Amino acid sequence: MSQFWSAVVHGLTPYVPGEQPKVSNLVKLNTNESPYPPSPTVLEAIREELGSDAARLRLYPDPNGDALKATIARRFGLAAGQVFLGNGSDEVLAHAFQALLKHDQPILFPDITYSFYPVYCGLYGVEFRTVPLDERFAMRVEDYCVANGGIIFPNPNAPTGRLLPLEAVERIVAANPDSVVLVDEAYVDFGGESAAALVPRYPNLLVVHTLSKSRSLAGMRVGFALGDARLIEALERVKNSFNSYPLDRLAQCAAVAALEDEAWFDTCRNQVMATRARLDSALAELGFEVLPSAANFVFARHPHRDGAELAAALRERKVLVRHFRLPRIDQFLRITIGTDADSEALLSALREILAGA
Amino acid sequence: MSQFWSAVVHGLTPYVPGEQPKVSNLVKLNTNESPYPPSPTVLEAIREELGSDAARLRLYPDPNGDALKATIARRFGLAAGQVFLGNGSDEVLAHAFQALLKHDQPILFPDITYSFYPVYCGLYGVEFRTVPLDERFAMRVEDYCVANGGIIFPNPNAPTGRLLPLEAVERIVAANPDSVVLVDEAYVDFGGESAAALVPRYPNLLVVHTLSKSRSLAGMRVGFALGDARLIEALERVKNSFNSYPLDRLAQCAAVAALEDEAWFDTCRNQVMATRARLDSALAELGFEVLPSAANFVFARHPHRDGAELAAALRERKVLVRHFRLPRIDQFLRITIGTDADSEALLSALREILAGA
Asked: What residue ranges define each of the domains in chain B, with the CATH number in brackets?
């Protein structure tokens, strides 16, 4: 605390990201990164931008990211004016809370969801009301057909991994023509169907993606939003009042290369989905209840073992998973899908733990 | 305009950065980039981080940037807890406006200064009062010894290039023990003395630097703030409520390498200062009034030629400089210091223009 802090700083409870360990001998299944490297074309694109002396790095990047916007627009069959870029999807979400979700009525999001949402509300003074998921951790469409100042949810949801079918997403968007509905699709490439196809028909829909998961570029910080040009303009106005150049030169060219290699993308996400299916079965055999997941992680609990204790016992065996000390989910582990070898290491550690006292 | 926009979006007047042309046959003296490439160690560091397959890019960067903070702390003789990192100094400034400059009383900044400051005020609802520079565009210390909610100014000032001596900076900081005084030192390495040395003695002082100018890394987006640990904590709280990972992996390792090569840094900035001295004289010979500059640009006007017309005529001759349509300075050109060859191209174009009708 300090007399120099503004009022908002005193009230903040910042987001705490998953551990990024500085040692490398861990099986890291805690922050939903891809176990596979980015497309080889990413390395080529960065090397080309660097040239022989990195001289281009002395120059500012394109503040508007036109090449990247064009690439994204092409992939989704949209116009460049329907694309917004950010430094990871977290920055995109932050601008969206300030630009599009701050109105007179509270916004709605699930009671169990990405824990950054209430933090953004605190930062920008956005009122919110949480909507309980049902007993199987599914969203009920009718709960979102009530008066609100905006709606946001991840699809698939995090940390549950549960998917809302596209027709249900559309019913929520259609039922709220006077509110922005933000669908956070960080994990949609692992089994969901994107709401991006609905953008041309719904001026109130904003779809947010990241290159951190299915494109293996968490280290480069690129996210984007797709929506009606008027929604995008609001985001651009806030972005251009905050930081003209949030994406550096290497991030922009890496993102273009990653988005253009569809074959690599499909191979990696198919491998993740195949590993997920195998891990699902193996965890069930060990007695875990595993929620159906359309994401690159599973959410699972053991009927007889405490979630926090399991996470700690795995940590001792050099396997990192994520555990949330939150109501309704404190018995669950969120386990990122790694390689099959990562699954084996996890399962072997779990067998040892479950065989113990 | 749209019903979906929040109230703040309607009222914004975003910042407009200098043109980043997509063609390369221009003499680019409009956005104060270094004419020299970054240290060769930057290229090495990026290549090492990329490895043979860029596999590390699949992993999130260090959210706290500990290695970079340690490097900066060492260079300035401070503790890591006195260092804050941002995606360019613009992001650092944005967080500072929200975290440290929003109080009951208006903040103060010069009437002629970095034109992003009033934009930040609009974004966060910070009231401000501008303080006129004197007739030679210098700050008067006594003008900043009045009640205020905070003070911010660049030193050297932009776009004038004029330097406030360190003892005058200290008088302002000492006269305002109840306000944060933010000294924006983007250009200090080209002839100024940093206020960083005052940080241990003044808990109200925040000094902001960028790697975009004197470290030749505009393309990589790295800035930082130095200040008392309580000021830094306020910035960290806002940053961690906005985006956990604003600096990507390559930006962090490029910045460490650039900051560790002091010899390269000194060579480049000395060359810039030598070129500036030659350009000063040459512009004076052409009849320009040139303000004394401690930055990597000069601010100059011709007694008989309109500033906007000169900028346009230079643009036609493929030389980009910056012109501001603002009160008191609309007859000036802000000219970045490039190489000596860039100066020659500029001077040759100016001779042609001045010889014309």
From this structure: 7-37+263-355 (3.90.1150.10), 40-261 (3.40.640.10)
Which residues 230-249 on chain A approach chain B with CB closer than 8 angstroms? 230-231, 233-234, 236-238, 240-249
**Distance of CA B311 to CAs A56, B49, B229, B285, B324, Å?**
25, 42, 44, 19, 10
A242 to chain B nearest CA, in Å? 6
User: Cβ–Cβ of A102/B12 closer than 8 Å?
Assistant: no
At A233-277, the pLDDT tens digits run: 999 999 999 999 999 999 999 999 999 999 999 999 999 999 999
Tell whether pTM > 0.95: yes
Q: What is the mean pLDDT of chain A?
A: 97
Helix (H, G, I), strand (E, B) or coil at B79: coil
Q: Searching chain A, which residue's CA lies closest to the CA of residue B204? A: A4
Which tokens hold the place of A158? 């995090």
For residue A237, give every residue at least 6 positions away whose Cβ sits within 8 Å of its Cβ, in sequence order, or none.
A99, B9, B12, B14
Strand spans (E) along chain B: 27-28, 83-86, 107-110, 128-131, 151-154, 181-184, 205-210, 223-227, 289-290, 297-301, 319-320, 332-336
Residues 186-205 of A with CB under 8 A from B: 203-204
**CB contact (8 A) between residue A59 and residue B218:** yes
Q: Do B37 and A50 touch (CB under 8 A)?
A: no
Please report the pLDDT score of residue A1 as a whole number: 65
Give the residue from B267, B280, B258, B265 showing the smallest Cα distance to B335.
B280
Reported as a single tens digit per residue, the pLDDT across B256-279 is 999 999 999 999 999 999 999 999
The nearest CA of chain B is from the CA of A304 a distance in Å of 33
CA dihedral A98, A100, A102, A103 (to 10 degrees): 160
**Taking CA atoms, what residue in A is nearest to B237?**
A14
State pLDDT tens for residues A274-321. 999 999 999 999 999 999 999 999 999 999 999 999 999 999 999 999
Which residue in the set A3, A218, A241 is minimally distant from B59, CB to CB? A218
| pLDDT digits 0-9 by tens, B149-204 | 999 999 999 999 999 999 999 999 999 999 999 999 999 999 999 999 999 999 99
Q: List B residues 288-327 in contact with A (Cβ-Cβ < 8 A).
A: none
What is the structure's pLDDT at B133? 98
A227 touches chain B (CB under 8 A): no
Treating both helix axes as pointing N-terminal to C-terminal, what angle do B229-239 and B88-100 enclose, rounded to 10 degrees?
100
| Chain A residues near residue B37 by CB distance under 8 angstroms | 53-55, 57-58
Among B304, B288, B270, B268, CA closest to B346: B288
Residue with tokens 């409009």: B30
Q: Do residues A195 and A170 make contact, with C-beta atoms less than 8 angstroms apart? A: yes
pLDDT digits (tens, 9 = 90+) for A4-16: 999 999 999 999 8
Contact residues, A window 255-294, toward B, CB-based 8 Å cutoff: none
Q: How confident is the model at residue B25 (pLDDT cuts 50, 70, 90)?
A: confident
The alpha carbon dihedral of A95, A100, A105, A109 has a sign of negative
Give the pLDDT band (50/70/90) at residue A357.
low
**Are A60 and B33 in contact (CB < 8 Å)?**
yes
Strands (E), chain A: 27-28, 83-86, 107-110, 128-131, 151-154, 181-184, 205-210, 223-227, 289-290, 297-301, 319-320, 332-336
Q: Are A60 and A245 in contact (CB under 8 A)?
A: yes
ipTM score for this prediction: 0.97
